[in-house]
């Protein structure tokens, strides 16, 4: 179901109005660019993608960084967007951390007791584009994996989820499925 959507300009204004810094806004623009590129490739590969939703979701995924840069920024972003009636877009903020956070881990992190997993094609493309864009710089999948390993340890289940998301996006976009890093 298509919820209420702002225009691109309104989404950018919302980031500023919420109090996001310029660095966060530039990152959101970089993620928008990357996510739309992936969406176009997926479409050419025969996958149905709502490109407007991908663009808006990418722009607004980090709006919660106006409140905190910690692990709660997804939930906070979701709250900000839901307060404005943007429920469809709230999911992009809530479900973009790592390659998604399942309920059990959410509980351990002190997040609300539920899954925070990207489920639609659009949410997966945005979560993945966010991993590819560190700030405004594009990094390789190998670099993303190493960063996850460095931060979480080599045996953390988030690494398996990241590999799965990578394979899924590669398949959608008709790209290489190379998961060694
Ligand atoms: Fe984020």
Briefly characterize the structure.
This protein is mainly α and 181 residues long. It contains 9 helices and 2 strands. Strands 1-2 form a two-stranded antiparallel sheet.
Would you kindly provide a written description of the structure presented here, covering whatever features stand out?
The protein has 181 residues and is an all-alpha fold. The chain has one domain: Hypothetical protein af1432 (Orthogonal Bundle), CATH 1.10.3210. It contains nine helices and two strands. It has helices spanning 8-18, 22-44, 51-60, 73-83, 87-94, 103-108, 121-132, 141-152, 157-173, and strands at 133-134, 137-138. Strands 1-2 form a two-stranded antiparallel sheet. A hairpin with a 2-residue loop joins strand 1 and strand 2 (137-138). The longest helix has 23 residues, at 22-44.
Number of strands: 2
Count of helical stretches? 9
Order of helices and strands: HHHHHHHEEHH
Structural class: mainly alpha
List bound small molecules: fe (ii) ion
Content of β-strand: under 5%
CATH architecture: Orthogonal Bundle
The span between the termini is 37 Å
CATH class identity:
Mainly Alpha
Q: Quote the average pLDDT.
A: 95
């Amino acid at each position: 179901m298509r919820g209420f959507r702002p225009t691109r300009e309104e989404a950018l204004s919302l980031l500023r109005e919420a109090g996001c810094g310029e660095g966060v806004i530039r990152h959101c623009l970089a993620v928008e660019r990357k996510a739309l590129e992936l969406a176009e490739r997926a479409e050419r590969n025969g996958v149905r993608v709502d490109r407007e939703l991908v663009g808006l979701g990418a722009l607004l995924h980090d709006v919660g960084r106006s409140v905190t840069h910690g692990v709660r920024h997804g939930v906070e972003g979701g709250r900000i967007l839901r307060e404005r009636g943007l429920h469809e877009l709230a999911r992009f903020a809530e479900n973009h951390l790592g390659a998604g956070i399942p309920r059990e881990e959410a509980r351990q992190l002190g997040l609300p007791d539920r899954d925070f997993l990207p489920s639609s094609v659009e949410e997966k493309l945005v979560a993945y584009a966010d991993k590819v864009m560190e700030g405004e710089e594009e990094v390789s999948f190998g670099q993303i994996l190493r960063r996850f390993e460095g931060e979480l340890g080599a045996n953390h289940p988030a690494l398996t989820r990241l590999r799965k998301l990578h394979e899924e996006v590669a398949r959608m976009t008709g790209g290489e499925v190379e998961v060694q890093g």
